[in-house]
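This section describes the prediction task in plain terms. A model, or a person checking by hand, is given the sequence of a single protein chain and must write out its three-dimensional structure as a string of C-alpha cells. No templates, partner chains or ligands are provided. The sample shown here is typical of the held-out split.
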Amino acid sequence: MATFLYKLGRAAFRRGRLVALIWVALLALAGVGAATASTATSSSFSIPGTEAQRAFDLLEQRFPGGNAQGATARVVFQAPAGQTMKDPANKAEVEKTVADLKAGSDQIAQVTDPYAAQAISRDGRVAYVSVSYKVSGMELSDATRDALKESGAQARDHGLTVEIGGDALQSIPETGAGEVVGVVIAGIVLVITFGSLVAAGLPLLTAIIGVGIGVSTITALANVLDLGSTTSTLAMMIGLAVGIDYALFIVSRYRAELAEGRAKEEAAGRAVGTAGSAVVFAGLTVVIALVGLAVVNIPMLTKMGFAAAGTVVIAVLIALTLIPALLGFAGDKIVGRKQRKAAAAAAEKTAAEKAAPRQAGAEKNGKANAGTRWARFVIRRPLIVMLVGVLGLGAIAVPAASLEMGLPDDGVKPTSTSERRAYDLLSEGFGPGFNGPLLVVVDGSKGAADQAVSAIKHLDGVAAVTPPTPNKAGDTAMITVIPKDRPSSAATEQLVHDIRGATGDNVLVTGQTAMNIDFSQKMNDALLPYLALVVGLAFLLLMVVFRSVLVPLKAALGFLLSVVAALGAVVAVFQWGWLGSVFGVEQTGPIMSMMPIFMVGVVFGLAMDYEVFLVTRMREAYVHGARPGQAIVTGFQHGARVVTAAAVIMIAVFSGFIGSSEQMVKMIGFGLAVAVLFDAFVVRMAIVPAVLALLGHKAWWLPKWLGRVLPNVDVEGEGLAAADAPAAAGPADPAGPAEKELVKA
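The expected answer:
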C-alpha cells in the first residue's frame, strides 16, 4: 500500500492544477445540486419492532387522515391573581386566539376550544388550546411557525400569561458563535503547531472543501433518500473533525521529510506513502463505526451513519490527493523561516548519513522536544504511569454505573424558554403527567376498549383515563391515559410496562412518551452488539496495520476505558447535577438515549485516529531496527506534537456546542469534548506508551501462522525504506547511548 500511495502522492504533486481543478469542480457540482434541490424536511422516523411503532402503524390504517405523527402544540394561558380563565374578558381573548390560529395556516389540522373541551384547571386559572398539524414539526413552514409564536400576543397585552409548548416549535439548532470560536481556535492551534500560516491554512481549507462536498451532496439527495435535515449536522461535525486531522498528519509528515533533505516531490510522495497509509486505515475505522449504526435497526440512524461515512471517505480522498497537490503550490512557504534553514542544512547531508535509519538520526541530531522528554519519563516509570491513568479514569467512570437513559422533553429546557414555562404551567394546573399523555390503541370492538379502560384505571400511577374514541368501522378505539408523574420519570416508564402487562396483545401503548421509552430501550439493547461489531472489526483491521495481537487489544481496551469515563462525567454533570451551573445545566434528568451509542461511534473513530498515527510511527521505527523503548521515544518525538494539536482542535470544536441552549446539543458537545480529552491525553499519551514499555518486544509479537495469513499492507513504508538503502549497507545500531541506559531490551 505504501508504494501505491507514494506513487499517487507524487502524481498529485506533479499534476497539482488538474487535481485541484477536479476537486473544485466536484464542489461546484455538489453546490449546484444542493441549491436546486427542494428544502429538506425531517426524515420519516420509525422504530421497527417496537409496540409503539406498531400502534402508530395501526392508527394510520384504521384512522385514515388522522396523522397520528403530525406536530402538536399547546398554547397555555394563565389568568392574573384573583381572576379565572372563565371571566368573560379572559374568555373572549382565548376565543380570539383560537380563531386566529384556525385562520393562520393551511397546515393546521385541528384547533380545540378549551371551553368546549373542558381544558381548564380545577382552580380555573390555567387553560390550554391544543393545536394539531397535518405535518411533522420539521416540515412546518416558517409562516406557520411564526403564526404559532405570535398567537396570544393580544391576550398578553390584556394581562394574561401566554406560553407555547409542543414539538411544533422544534427546529435544528443553527451553528452559533460557539462553533465558530471552535474553528478559530483550531486555526490558532495549527499556526502554533506549524509556525506557518500556509501550513496552518491547508488543513482548514481542505477540511472545508471536503465538508462542503459532503454536506452539499447530502442536501441535494435529502428528499430523494429521505435523509432529513439532521443528517447534514452529523456529517458536518464528523467531516470537519477527521478532515482537519488527516490533513494535519500528512502536512506534518511532509515537513519532516523536507527537514531530512528530500526534494519536494519526493517528500510529498513519502508523506502520502507513510502518513497516508495511516490515514486510510484510520478512515476505515471511522467508516466502520458509522456504518455499524445499522445494527441499531432504526432507519434514520442508519441513513445518518452511511451519509456521515461518505463524508469521511471524501476526507480521506482529499488528504491523499488534494493535499499533495496544494503542497506543490505552497512551495517553500509550507515551513517557517527557521525550518527552511534547517531543511537547507539537512540537504547537505552525505549519502552515508541518508542511508542510516531515519529514526536513529532524528534522535541523535534532533533536539529533545516535549514529546521526547515525556516518552523518556514514561518508559522510566511505566507501571506508575499506567496505574495512575487507569485508576484515574476508573474513578471518573464510577457514575456511569447509575446511567439512566431517556429522551429530553420541554421540562429540561432553560426556564427562559416559552416551552419550559408552558410545561411548568401545565404541571401546576393539571399535574406533571399531563405533559406526557399515553395513547392506548385497542384493536377490537367497543367491549374490548371498555375492558381495557377498566383494567387501566386500577393501575398505580394513573391520574386519569378518557373514554374510548372508536373509528368509523368500530373495530379500533383510542384511549388517552394521563400518568401521575412527569414523562421522563421512572414511574411513568413503569406505568407503560404495567399497562402492557395488564392488557392483552390487542392493546398497544404509544404516544410520544411511550415512543421515547421504546426508543431508549432499543438503543440500550443495541449498545453491546454495536460495541462488539465495531471493536471486533477494528481489532482485525488494526491487527493488519500493526501486525501484532497485543497492540490492537490494548487500543480497544483503552478506548473502552475512555468512553466509560466520559459517560461517567456526563452522568455526574447532567444526571446528578455536579458542576451543573458551570455548564449551564438548569434541570437534571435522564441521559439522552442516543448518547452512549453516538459517543461510541464518534469517539471510537477519533480515538483510533490518534492510535494509528502515534503507534504507526513507533512501528515504523521498530521495523527499521529500533529497540522497543527507542521506538516509543521516536514515535512521540515525531507524533506527540501533532496528535496533541489534533486533540486540542477537536476539543475546541466540540466544546463550542456546550454553549447551546438545547440540552441535547449541550450534552453531546460536553460528552465528545471530555471523551477526546481522556482518550488523547490519558489513554494514548500515557497508558499506551506505558503498556508498550512494559511489554517490550512482546508488544509486536505475532504468531508465525497468523503472519502468513494476514496481508502485509506495509503501512510503515518499509518498502520505501528498502528502496532507499544501499545494498551494501550494514545494520546500524538504532539506539543512542541515552536510550540504551533507559531501556535494556
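For orientation: The mean pLDDT is 83.
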